[in-house]
Design goal:
By secondary structure, this protein is of the alpha/beta class. It contains 7 helices and 10 strands. 38% of the residues are buried.
């Protein structure tokens, strides 16, 4: 798919809404002892408010680097990232992050892990404690509030980490391969769970994954990245109806889109399924 002159990937059939996240000619170059290493070529795209954007690409293409720059955890080498019209120059207050590992503290209960976000942000515990309980109920963890992480399954731990990311009511949820370490059956359940949470909360989601079917199942759009130095290979609208069921993965339209995306990696000589 050809890029426009401004470097943006055209997306056919997308409706015009206010962009909440704007990635504007962003690059990343790491300085090493062997000289500069280009991680990302100039990237430009927008994510609309309430949109679920999935990004898929081969290992080492800069997906996680892009997410960390959007979260304000890494500076861009050039270009600008704007969140709700404001330049990201450090960790924004209205962003929640979920990593591949749940990163829960073993000595704190599930509820205390969720509330850690509130403590670190110096917010009112009395104000946000009901929100924490609501999120635990939303994710089916209401009976495990006083349980410790090591007593939970991997999927339950990730649900707790999602609660922690959402408890301060951010506008944006950034997710970096959050289900990559889970077994296949648990991962499918978590895809359904995340779809439901996103639908009920209305958050804007930027979701990084190596799984093409996962990207198509969850995303409103799928951004396909090239090998390192990463750039935009294509952008696809996912026109499958919601809510999506696992049965939909066996339908021709789903298979056709996953094959179209997978062809980019065959062309590059790489494939992350």
């Amino acid at each position: 798919m050809a890029l426009q002159r401004d470097g943006k990937a055209p997306s056919i059939g997308a409706t015009v809404q206010r962009p909440l996240i704007e990635i504007d000619r962003v690059t990343k170059v790491y300085q090493t002892n062997d000289g500069p290493v280009e991680s990302l070529k100039p990237l430009s795209f927008d994510i609309k408010q309430g949109e679920f954007m999935a990004i898929v690409g081969p290992s080492g293409c800069g997906k996680s680097t892009l997410l960390k720059m959007t979260a304000g955890l890494l500076p861009a080498s050039s270009g600008e990232i704007r969140l709700d019209g404001k330049t990201v120059s450090g960790p924004p207050d209205n962003v929640g992050i979920v990593f591949q590992s749940s990163v829960l503290l073993a000595w704190r209960s599930v509820l205390d892990n969720v509330m850690l976000q509130i403590e670190m942000r110096h917010l009112s515990k009395a104000k946000y404690l009901p929100k924490a309980h609501d999120l635990l109920k939303l994710t089916g963890l209401q009976d495990f509030a006083n349980t410790y992480p090591w007593q939970l399954s991997g999927g339950m731990q990730q649900r707790a980490s999602i609660c922690r990311a959402l408890v301060h009511d951010p506008a944006v949820l950034l997710m970096d391969e959050p289900f990559g370490a889970l077994d296949a059956m648990t991962r499918e359940k978590m895809n359904l769970e995340l779809q439901r949470i996103w639908s009920e909360t209305g958050k804007t989601v930027l979701f990084i994954t190596h799984s093409i079917p996962e990207a198509v199942f969850l995303g409103d759009r799928v951004l396909v990245m090239s090998e390192r130095p990463g750039t935009i290979a294509a952008m696809y609208d996912v026109k499958l109806p919601r809510p999506r069921s696992l049965r939909m993965m066996g339908e021709p339209e789903f298979g056709a889109l996953t094959q179209k995306i997978r062809a980019h990696f065959y062309a590059q000589g790489t494939l992350d399924a």
